């Protein structure tokens, strides 16, 4: 469920598809309301009587970002129109503005050129009760519903304001205002309400061969009208869009270089560039309030009627650890605060959460096949948040921050893990695996729980909590002994991926080789050079490795 390119600032996120059409507009929380619901928002050009949207297959596309930034660098060429368009798009670092800088060139020039931008509105995730209108004071179109406002404006060279617009109905036989653009002329309907879309146009004039025509298009987002007008477009026009491009570009370049290790000297510039791009990509779907969103792509809604725009504690813990190691404490602090606020009273994390920290939709049942209550959880998620928090403290030594999480996150989560143990074998009680497919006692979960208990032991030692220190130390030791006795399979010569205790209390060993077994050493339970671990990892490396050029490791064998 990929998007070819994403831009954001932690409050707003814009996603582009493979044609470079806008598909997703999130605001004011990443992963919450998608105001287009993943539908295509078209960009098109009218040149001397010919027209093409960006989904025309004749476009030749080159995608990328400006170096070490979240500013796009995309070049599109259409031989039939005879133009090349370079986009440098970004979401401002501090304001919820999506700004698009375009440079249009033609090797032969053109007499009449126009650019069109279409928006298919589902404000707050619904096409009911939306309004689009032309606002003459700001020479823009405004879309709104309740406390969500979107101003659509721009300028060609120094001349600000849209040249034309279309506001109209969609659905019930109406295709949308984008159709109106294809003859190069928009109808200028002043206002429409209900299920609506809008298209704005800019007159590019005539262009001499080889000479660029520059224009800027913007979408200002806000919770009230003045936020997108006086404190939106007026600021862009007053200071100039280049001001905001410059500060956003500089911010992300500085942000991406927080890790001061000399990676380029050790691994070369290509590895350095990939590393920084990876950090920026990991940052984009993280909401500024701490939710680490799994995916902001909405294509899945077409068949599943749900999204992956939720925060899994496991995902967040692993992403936070990567960002911590890259020096981004500002982002990870918010995640751990979000985690503390999301922990249920019993001391564990639920399956997944909304960007507001409320329980997300789930397919994990609350009863088993006998009607007995079970917990709809993946226990590894609880263990990994504590493990990641201790790694966070080891790196940043921010005592004042973690002390506030000790009594209301670390202790309740660790105490629950101590209690959630099967007395018959000393292993954790069953829960769902990280793939969300199987119920049982999983190797990955065992390693994650041990990592969480060991982290809690370290925190208890740090704060002089002797009773808790002993409690978590002893629980971790018992868990490792139980794993030695009941999880490791001498017959296999390695660890299995899970065991299940059947109704007659017999034990079934799941012998399928699974890459997630690596969790037994990754979170510290076993040293990586333990012979049982090396034998297990050799089997994974041999049997699950993808032999294709792209490489990689499969989840598990069939």
Number of helices: 13
Number of strands: 22
CATH architecture of the largest domain: Alpha/alpha barrel
- Which class of secondary structure composition applies to the elements? alpha+beta
CATH class of the largest domain: Mainly Alpha
Residue fraction in strands: 15-25%
For this structure, the CATH topology of the largest domain is Glycosyltransferase
Low-confidence stretches: none
Textual characterization of the structure:
The chain has helices at 225-239, 241-256, 263-267, 269-283, 301-304, 313-325, 329-342, 379-396, 399-419, 443-462, 466-487, 519-522, 531-543; strands spanning 5-8, 13-16, 22-26, 43-47, 50-53, 60-62, 74-78, 83-91, 97-105, 110-120, 130-135, 140-145, 148-156, 159-160, 164-169, 191-194, 196-207, 213-222, 431-432, 439-442, 498-501, 507-510. The strands form 4 sheets. Strands 6, 7, 8, 9, 11, 12, 13, 14, 16 and 18 form a 10-stranded antiparallel β-sheet that branches. A 5-stranded antiparallel β-sheet has the order 5-4-10-17-15, with no helix packed on it. A 4-stranded antiparallel β-sheet has the order 19-20-21-22. Helix content is 32%, strand content 23%. It has 2 domains: 43-255, Beta-galactosidase, Chain A, domain 5 (Distorted Sandwich), CATH 2.70.98; 310-543, Glycosyltransferase, CATH 1.50.10.10. It is an alpha+beta fold. 47% of the residues are buried.
